[in-house]
């Protein structure tokens, strides 16, 4: 075996800018209706998607997606007062009386859970609007930091990169991240979190990452999963439906991660401190007054 020592260092600082929801790409009303299997009841102009009336902004065309859940119903916030906040339409089950802006009724009629429709829009965005490469990152700790480090490293190569906003790593967060990816993006980096079994699998099905990363396994979900081995299996759901051509990246320093099952024929890449890793960390130190870290990597190759 031979190896390449990368003499340069990779500086990962706080320069990477999060993509705020207000910077999301434009959706036409026809795209909105098609993506949520909805019905156009009132016409509205193209705009960005927003799920929080508190961040609506004047002079910005925004469609308010009224999410319903087990303990909340965003339809309660729909009123003509939204007009002055830049709202040009609503996506949801219903609108208030005398609503004269755009309205796309999800799934045609009835009182349905619009969270499912948000997921449908996210899948539409992934399948029909984004043609780049998607990186999915999960692990018990370090997801947000690693996501930002990956994004910064890619940006240093001149690649147009999108990274999920903040710690948007649950069902809603991943859906909004997918909806917010601009068509011009080359690589998107999303983090995926969980609180129980089956959740990572659902997020992976929604995002369909070509590069799937598991960082580590910790005790943060033992109350719902029971054992570290069960936590590892839940994290490993990100690999479950990977296909030929995808890359599965595993932490070789965590035995519970290193032993996760990957579908036959899918490429596995190991990283860590130990010798024999495909990408080995040789050295690391804090940089820029604690705002970043500098690393030296060694790449093993035949």
From TrEMBL:
This is Mur ligase central domain-containing protein. The keyword Thylakoid does not apply. Residues 137-276 form the Mur ligase central domain. Pfam families: Mur_ligase_M (PF08245). Keywords: ATP-binding, Ligase, Nucleotide-binding. The keyword ATP-binding applies. SUPFAM superfamilies: MurD-like peptide ligases, catalytic domain, MurE/MurF N-terminal domain. InterPro entries: Mur-like_cat_sf, Mur_ligase_cen, MurCDEF_CellWall_CoF430Synth, MurE/MurF_N. GO terms for molecular function: acid-amino acid ligase activity; ATP binding.
